[in-house]
Amino acid sequence: MKRILLLLTTFMAGLVMVSQGLTASADTTPNYVITTDATYPPFDFQDKNNQYVGIDQDILKEIAKREGFTYTLKPMSFNAATQSVTSDQADGVIAGMSITDERRQVFDFSTPYYKSGIAWAVSKDSKVKSLDDLRGKTVAIKTGTSGANYALSVQKKYGFKVTYFNDSETLYRDVINGNSVATFGDLPVLQYSIKNGTQLKVMNPKDPFEAGEYGFAVKKGGNAKLLASFDKGFAEIKKDGTYDKIVNKYLDASASTFTGNKANSTTVWGILTSNKKAFLDGLFETILLTVMGIFLASIWGIILGIMGISQNKFVRGTATTIIYIFRGLPMMVLAFFIYIGLPTAIGFKIPAFVAGVITLILNEGAYTGAFVRGGFEAVERGQMEAARSLGLSYGVAMRKVIMPQGIKIMVPSFINQFIITLKDTSILSAIGILELTQTGTLIVSRNSQGFKVWAIIAVIYLVVITLLTWLSNWVEKRTKA
């Protein structure tokens, strides 16, 4: 048991070290990790070639080229992106982030690179005419945005309720479907989405509320060199007209220029063919996470299960405590703790993929440990007594008599846990892992075809789960033969 524990610990540590090594730059060129919310067109989104584009991304790319640094882009939800910077998992964030006094307490901001205003929008067939009509109704807002801040500031005055979303497309769909009656957001973002086919109408296009400014941000007191490079590069592109070209490129052009939303690309087949690479990449990441999660969580779960039936009270208590803790923690909370919270305590970065695998090991392993322990305990006590009466030690009796019978009892539970692990990988999109669910979110933010994209994602999951179930049933029959 000690050898297995040592092997698992060494493997996990090696996984972190290898990932750290792979991300290290081979030369002296500065390389930074930059986070963004890639569901925020026209500032941050994926184009029809699955490249990250937008006003923010073009500005960053041009500045990096002029200032001689490289960067690795990490797309995730806005809140996760900002927390990645404060926990030193990322060096900076550019995501249409409004500069506020509250944020200045934890971030250092660049020179403002865009001035915007807040607008509010309703569905095209809405009967809402003024803010007074929102009284008693629900308004959808996106967490962490200036639109959300403004909505909350006038909520009491106009008497509406709020519901929160992490991505823009889901928020818009909530309003279109009538679950919410309105939303508040940055005017250019709303206008771009409407140009891209979103069935909303802006109520105050010529008179936006509370103009604000966007800025590139780093952790307060950190990455001064990166911030200085951004400011210097921004001053140059502003002076020579490059900045205006970038802004006009996205605000003046048709959305289909970047998204490829032509008639044939809005069909199911068109979406599949135009996003084939993205779907395949997302599926590969999901399968890789699932295989590694299943394998390592099974090892960890078996160890916990064996510990749970140990004759030593301390060992049994330790296993029970571990299972209790990690079964009780919501998986998303655990993922955020490992990826964002833990690096602050241990002093070095944990790559998102590694954090995701560790999350699966701890969470799925706890559930596995519970049914492994139950499987061993389900073997008749007389089996152990008979083995001991024949002179076998406790350890030998466990390996030769109890474990083989217990494993056969556990096979259905292992099959169920495999399927659960596959589905749970979708939760890891919250920390920026580009698996199948996150892939769907990025595609929907680009083409606004939510129903068709999520139907495709659902079918892919069902196919993979069906194949996994067939394989598991085959293994179950083999073990019973």
TrEMBL record:
Keyword tags: Cell membrane, Lyase, Membrane, Signal, Transmembrane, Transmembrane helix, Transport
Main location: membrane
Transmembrane segments: 287-309, 321-340, 346-363, 453-475
EC number per UniProt: 4.2.2.-
Molecular function terms from GO: lyase activity
Record's signal peptide: 1-24
CDD domains: TM_PBP2
Gene3D superfamilies found in the cross-reference section: MetI-like (1.10.3720.10), Periplasmic binding protein-like II (3.40.190.10)
InterPro entries linked: AA_ABC_transptr_permease_3TM (IPR010065), ArtM/GltK/GlnP/TcyL/YhdX-like (IPR043429), Iontro_rcpt_C (IPR001320), MetI-like (IPR000515), MetI-like_sf (IPR035906), Solute-binding_3/MltF_N (IPR001638)
Localization terms from the record: Cell membrane
Top-rank lineage group of the source organism: Bacteria
Membrane topology type: Multi-pass membrane protein
Ranges of residues in domain ABC transmembrane type-1: 283-472
Pfam families (alphabetical): BPD_transp_1, SBP_bac_3
Protein known as: Membrane-bound lytic murein transglycosylase F
Gene coding for it: mltF_2
